[in-house]
Write the structure tokens for this entry.
Amino acid sequence: MVRVRFAPSPTGYLHIGSARTFIFNWLFARHHKGTMILRIDDTDVERNTEESLESIFEGLRWLGLGWDEEYRQSERFPLYREAAQALLEKGFAYRDFTPPEAKAGAEEGEGKGGWLCHPEMRAMSREESDRRAAAGEPFVLRFRVPREPERTVRFRDLVYGEQAKSTADIEDFALLRSNGAPTYHHASCVDDADLRISHIIRGQDHLTNTFKHILLFEALGGQMPEFAHLPLLIAPDGAKLSKRRHGPVVSVLTYRDAGFLPQAYVNFLCLLGWNPKDDREKMTLEELIEAFTLEGVNRSNAVVNFTEEDPIDPKALWLNAQHIYSLPVETLAGLLLPVWQKAGYEATAEKALRVTPLIQERIRTLNDAVAVADFFFLKELRPYDAAELIPQKGDRAMALRALEKAHAVLADGDWTHQALEERLRAAAAELGLKAGQMFQPIRVAVCGRKNAPPLFETLEVVGREACLERIGKAIALLQQEP
RNA sequence: GGCGCUAUCGUCUAAGGGUUAGGACGGAGCCCUCUCAAGGCUCAAAUACGGGUUCGAAUCCCGUUAGCGCUACCA
């Protein structure tokens, strides 16, 4: 039975690297019909914040993947205390009474290999340890890493392969803080054991921590989980993504607010550090579940490609466009309606449904629809330069002739795009104008700019009244002195 | 400093002893076309460096370099 967990600590927003870790765990669980567990690792009371927790949930909610079980470490402290006590009893742990300030004094031991332990504390008799603890002297509980003889800790990482490290290079890490709260290592292992986690899938920054965890799992007794570490997501400058240095691009909510489809963003994140072993790029959630394996995860860090001018990875944008394009029109219209309303447009569901097919392949984000579809909703076109009305290889007189003819032709007759095209093409022929020379002035008059969706469908949706009025205004504009 | 991990086009990646080193994004060009977009075609663009092993190395081994991680009473 596959049981995996995502264990964020509420000390910040939901980072995109964390989001990817969540997604890979989730995909692995779904692929194996296992259980996805969300565990809030909030053992550091000093640093946790409620806002952070809320923003993490908000990010996860947006991704829309869900989870099966939920735990919070702050509610499980007794479990960690018991486990710590058992470790102490069995001699796997010892009390270290060194005051925090005195740590500096111990650093002379670092010289050649780094800090390992305080030998006096490690060697202290249980009687003295108990006596000093009973007297109320503060201590941290440390794991007694096996030394003399040292041994090599080994495991096979499902991504990175065989791993080995000598206990001579592993320090006596803390289990319990002097305030009695468990450290990450302790709470995490106790929980992973208690929750019967089968696979620990997490960031590569924990790869070397795993040796400590193996030692701890062994001491705790219980089934050893499998481990799989994920390459990290980094910034173009090679540094790890940080809000301070790289700004809001590190938070998943930025992508929601930029108008991303969650499934597109999930797709994008999956392609960073994993590939389906074929050339597929755009994949649905179902396809991802089916294709996801740990073997497909690679070992080198992936750069999220953004710049200050272009804060969003171009590939993410492209993928989002792909997903938008493959949405049923009704679905997309439903997504776009609130976007337009928020922009202050008088959008209705019916209107949204008519406009959407015309812009579907012209937007890369939901938010793009605001600028791309403005003229469908705005009463008053935003001002444009009269020169825009003049077609290529044409002049003011040509534009005027085209618009006046168009005004006359559009004043009556069927208002369907087929009929409009027929009449307008005939009109162009009559005037001896090329299609572009005829259509471009009309497009600018009606849309207020040179680039827009196909003309006839656009006219159809904008409506006769508005079209005639806008063409009239354009004619007036052209007739004004330059 | 110690220990560990990593190294293919600008970016994401494929190729796990034999390929003109493949695909995608982005870039350039062409086609299509009422503009834009979409789509199609083409081009430019990579095996960090040095040694081995081998008939043959992007691929295996060693070294160098670089980057990253851990080395907290953070996670």
Notes: The two ends of chain A are 78 Å apart (CA to CA). The mean pLDDT of chain A is 94. The first helix of chain A runs from residue 16 to 31. Chain A has 21 helices and twelve strands.
